[in-house]
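Batch manifest, entry 17 of 40.
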Amino acid sequence: MRKHANRTYLFAPGNHERRVEKALALGSDVVILDLEDAVAVSEKEK
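Output type: structure tokens
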């Protein structure tokens, strides 16, 4: 079990593979893939 507080939370749009890969590579303690608010309406059907 981890015993330190999460220092950084990074929100990234989950519909672009390149952005997801970059978010995961940045070293944040937590990466949250936003599948609703950060995705354009025209992209939500994909």
